[in-house]
Amino acid sequence: MKDLISCAAIDPMTYPEAPPARHPRFDGANGQRSVRSTRRLALFLTPRVIPLMLSFAVAAFSLSVAARAETTDPQNTLVIELKSGRVLVKLRPDLAPKHVVRVKQLARDGFYNGLKFHRVIAGFMAQTGDPTGTGTGNSSYPNLPAEFSSEVYKRGSVGAARASDPNSANSQFFICFGDGCRRLTGSYTLWGEVISGMEHVDRIATGEPPAQPDIMHKVYLLADAQQ
Q1: DSSP for 24-59?
Q2: pLDDT tens digit string along 181-213?
Q3: What does each C-alpha distance from 65 to 58, 60, 82, 156 come to in angstroms?
Q4: pTM of whole model > 0.90?
Q5: Ranges of each domain in the chain
Q6: What's the alpha-carbon Rg for the chain, to the nearest Å?
Q7: Cis omega before residue 93 (within 30°)?
Q8: Which pLDDT tens digit goes with each residue over 73-117?
Q9: Distance between terminal CA atoms of the chain?
Q10: CATH topology of domain 75-225
Q11: Under 8 Å between Cβ of 80 and 219
């Protein structure tokens, strides 16, 4: 690979020449009048075109938000309130129906409220759902059978934490920061995906455990909040 400094020092004339810039053509007085006319036209259009372009941009953004709202199923959207804002998780009963039922059950029980993120590895994932905050605790409900799938883990994927036994998932789960979770595909049950607020997940304090762990202030189904 070439040294960056030596590349920067290459004579710019050795690079392909850029196409000639297009300048107004001057043809005596006629050319001057043409330039003045062009400038007057620009001054006339600018204050009208820019607001119009901004209006189109705002309208497009509004349509995008509206489309997302229409496709959000409140019965299958989990809300996690963190210190910096809300995280919306789309539940995936099509991939892991038993796990989704359990998550809904625990959310409605208020089980997750106030629980710590006890294991957070930068670039990998943030784990929570343990009432003891040690990584060894679970809910009082029985463990769940594995519901592995071919759905690829990626940034924002939410999966069930477990012990070495594939059928030991219970209440703990993790949220992936990036593609570092890809290797978990097919070995850990994926039951959700973050559809909004991933920037808040990125702010969770790291550590195993973190010195000052963040908590889930409140966890509930979007449908319950709308009642």
Answers
A1: PPPBHHHHHHHHHHHHHHHHHHHHHHHHHHHHHHHH
A2: 999 999 999 999 999 999 999 999 999 999 999
A3: 11, 9, 22, 19
A4: no
A5: 15-71, 75-225
A6: 27
A7: no
A8: 999 999 999 999 999 999 999 999 999 999 999 999 999 999 999
A9: 62
A10: Cyclophilin (2.40.100)
A11: yes
